[in-house]
Design brief:
A two-stranded antiparallel sheet has the order 1-2. It has helices at residues 3-8, 32-43, 52-59, 72-85; strands at residues 11-16, 24-30. The radius of gyration is 13 Å and the shape is globular. The protein is of the alpha+beta class.
Length: 90
Amino acid sequence: MSGDEREARKVAVALRYEAPGAPVVVAKGEGAVAEAIVATAEGAGVAVEENPLLATALAAVELDRPIPEVLYKAVAEVIGFVLRASGKMR
């Protein structure tokens, strides 16, 4: 697989989290759609965590559905990263 093909396969997933519920998948895509998701997040000042394995696992979740319990710990670590990056948590 060439570098261009690998880049086209990039996966991005956007989550919405409102306590006390589980995070919900609100956008997902590969290639150009993934790039648009990342650009939208960065444009809105949302921290972006690059984790291809987690993104691939989350991409299997249907849109507007909560993430499965098996992914809670990994996603909690990402939420912690985002909160620290935004200055909302030390």
